[in-house]
Amino acid sequence: xxxxxxxxxxxxxxxxxxxxxxxxxxxxxxxxxxxxxxxxxxxxxxxxxxxxxxxxxxxxxxxxxxxxxxxxxxxxxxxxxxxxxxxxxxxxxxxxxxxxxxxxxxxxxxxxxxxxxxxxxxxxxxxxxxxxxxxxxxxxxxxxxxx
Length: 147
Description:
- The chain is mostly helical.
- The protein has one domain.
- Helices cover 71% and strands 0% of the residues.
- It is globular.
- The model has no long low-confidence stretch (mean pLDDT 88).
């Protein structure tokens, strides 16, 4: 089935967004330091988001440091694999102007992924809480300073 012009533009926009981590990794590998925003959730309330460490993991993968990447975020290899699959699919759909697959619309896939991500995040938050760092981060957060 052929895609409408707006669907093609949407895929090109998604492709541009998917290229961002690749460009950050390439620039970092070439020796350029790319300054990115920190975690807005952590700045606001002191609790890091579920993707905490993913940027550093992507940079480590760009340097072929897989164990370091997994130290930063255990799910980073899986995220990189899914990212690569999405890049290929969106590229194919944008340039052939037809839909190839709707694997990303499966509810069970999303539920499994979210369960894995938030389960892992809960374990990491427990570690922060147990070490006392979570309370410290929350006390130093923007909202805590307002109160």
